[in-house]
UniProtKB/TrEMBL annotation:
<dbReference type="InterPro" id="IPR010987">
    <property type="entry name" value="Glutathione-S-Trfase_C-like"/>
</dbReference>
<dbReference type="InterPro" id="IPR004045">
    <property type="entry name" value="Glutathione_S-Trfase_N"/>
</dbReference>
<dbReference type="InterPro" id="IPR036282">
    <property type="entry name" value="Glutathione-S-Trfase_C_sf"/>
</dbReference>
<dbReference type="Pfam" id="PF13417">
    <property type="entry name" value="GST_N_3"/>
</dbReference>
<feature type="domain" description="GST C-terminal">
    <location>
        <begin position="90"/>
        <end position="216"/>
    </location>
</feature>
<protein>
    <submittedName>
        <fullName>Glutathione S-transferase family protein</fullName>
    </submittedName>
</protein>
<feature type="domain" description="GST N-terminal">
    <location>
        <begin position="8"/>
        <end position="87"/>
    </location>
</feature>
<dbReference type="Pfam" id="PF13410">
    <property type="entry name" value="GST_C_2"/>
</dbReference>
<dbReference type="InterPro" id="IPR040079">
    <property type="entry name" value="Glutathione_S-Trfase"/>
</dbReference>
<dbReference type="InterPro" id="IPR036249">
    <property type="entry name" value="Thioredoxin-like_sf"/>
</dbReference>
């Protein structure tokens, strides 16, 4: 039986592919493996049955043959280790790719999440307007550093890998902020990821959930 992942029944991004199941869907498509999707409501996320798989009550999760995983990065790493197509066979190159996967979620994503929380959850707080410039500058610092590292390279470390999959999906969350307009090199890097057939299949699959749910 194919592995089963979880995704939002009603994604707040209205089909833009920003929810983290997109990372896992894309990984499945890159390695050419089938997967099933169990859609979960916001209520069900917080119920014991779901928390038994993810104690934090979030998507995505992964279940296959009794193995239960959560954390998008861990699931992508698991698929990369299990099937060819996401991690380089050379041990050193693989270690570097995993390093960049961590950089995506642990160095680049945190300031992006800070901005999202400020805009989506704290917009009405009196201090948000004062705080926003500093939050945006923390993102710019990381984007400056990432741009300098990437230079004119297509991908982070040689060929496309799970590192790029994670980095592109993290960076895409900046779309609504307009900050990517300041970084044409990073915007082009994201576009290269989005142009991959595996990305497009994954994007179409998550968009179909939104369109079915909205009667579209
Ligand atoms: N670090 C986790 C974050 C998971 C996460 O934040 N999931 C969001 C959707 S993208 C979620 O389930 N939000 C609903 C909630 O937290 O109640 C991962 O990468 O999987």
């Amino acid at each position: 039986m194919a592995a089963t992942i979880t995704a939002f029944e009603h994604s707040p991004d209205r089909g833009q592919g920003l929810a983290r199941d997109m990372r896992v869907r894309w990984a499945f498509e890159e390695v050419g493996q089938p997967y099933e999707v169990r859609l979960v409501s916001f209520t069900a996320l917080k119920e014991p049955a779901h928390r038994a798989v993810n104690p934090f009550g979030q998507i995505p999760t992964f279940e296959e043959d009794g193995l239960h995983l959560f954390e998008s990065g861990s699931i992508v790493l698991h698929l990369g280790e299990r099937y060819p197509g996401l991690l380089p066979p050379d041990a050193d190159a693989r270690a570097r790719a995993i390093t960049w996967m961590f950089a995506a979620v642990n160095t680049i994503e945190p300031p992006i999440l800070e901005l999202q929380n400020a805009v989506l959850l704290e917009a009405k707080e009196a201090w948000t307007a004062q705080r926003l410039p500093a939050v945006k500058d923390r993102i710019r610092k990381r984007l400056d550093e990432l741009s300098a590292y990437l230079g004119s390279a297509d991908w982070l470390d040689g060929a496309f890998s799970a590192a790029d999959l994670m980095m592109v999906t993290v960076l895409r969350r900046l779309g609504p902020s307009g900050l990517l307009d300041e970084y044409p090199g990073i915007a082009a890097y994201i576009a290269r990821g989005e142009a991959r057939p595996a990305y497009q299949r994954a994007f179409a699959a998550q968009l179909a959930v939104f369109e079915q749910g909205s009667g579209g």
